[in-house]
# Entry
Amino acid sequence: MTIKDTPEEWEIRATETPFVGNKTSVRTDDVVMPDGKVVRRDYQVHPGSVGVLALDDEDRVLLIKQYRHPVRQKLWEIPAGLLDVPGENPLHAAQRELYEEAHVKAEDWRVLTDVYTTAGGCDEAVRIFLARDLSEAEGERFEVEHEEIDLEYARVPVDELVRGVLAGELHNNCLVVGVLSLVAARASGGLDTLRPADAEWPARPFEA
# Structure
């Protein structure tokens, strides 16, 4: 038996979109269950996201601390952002986010992992990249606004982040998944065996 997620789509009898927001919306589908019953399912429709676990030559991860209103906390996170343009190459989006949020560029990019953040209630797909060989970006810093005006920055050793995750002190999903995936990759073949940065991503198809 191969343990692998597989595509499947059950019959939808009716669909509507009761809410449309600036970046996301809410959709309601009437879905036919295996026993023939029709059940209503509400979920958030999301364009998708990218995250960047930027690892420097001292084995530290670049972090950003940002206020997140829904949970009323300031969370330590890795640079991340929405796939604003349909069909956009996620690597290009990740490079943009690393520049805009941290004014950093990287020469070595790999796919660390792909996840659905909350598949029971949202179709958001996130691709988390590993970025290495870091340096300061050229030119002026990107002009930030809203929550990003109050950002804090840090570079934290991987071991310290693992401790914080397991102690329940760090909660951002991209940070948690990214750091634990990094440790797992090192233990099972090494970082150079990770998928290339342009690896296929069925959840959010893109052009090279």
Notes: The first strand starts at residue 12 and ends at 20.
